[in-house]
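Intended use. Records such as the Response regulator transcription factor entry shown here are meant for training and evaluating sequence-to-structure methods. They are not intended to support clinical decisions.
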Amino acid sequence: MYTARCGRQPGITVLGEAADGREAVAQARRPRPDVVLMDVRMPRRGGIDATRELLAESARPPKVVVITTFENDGHVTAALSAGASGFVLKRLPVRQIAEAVRVVAAGEAILFPAALRRMVAARPLGSAEALPRAALTGREEEVLRLMATGLSNPQIADSLTVSLETTKTHVGNVLTKLGAHNRTHAVVIAYESGLVVPGFTG
């Protein structure tokens, strides 16, 4: 339903639709899309496992945006940890869901910091990932905290008064040191490890 509606938005072409997670993986193999809009709760195979399989299949897998009904859905943080580039809520207008797809296709992440904080806080104790031993530098921690507020690379560069290339280098170092799939996963790790605390706004 959401896929079909998004297909009527400018700049988006729908290549296929799936009724469950197993079919979603199969559909994404032919032809390979730029972005997969993945419901985290599906029959036969859930969105988390489907996301994990899709992203492990090739050197250049499609980006995944997960879609959910509830802001505190614990499945979403699991999908983000599996490598999804962001999430959207089903109640959003179709034009906003379509814009999220465009943003992720362009290489950015979709973050709703307040909702993400609530999701991470709602996870059972012991589910948090341990922060890797490779310590971040002070500047890298600063960049990660700004990433957690939802800022893009150009916005981070402006905030720190550094070049865009320098910012990209810092972001790359953060992802490598945290062992993160992407910037969204890095933010999840930051919240779960306590490196970024609820209420931080930059």
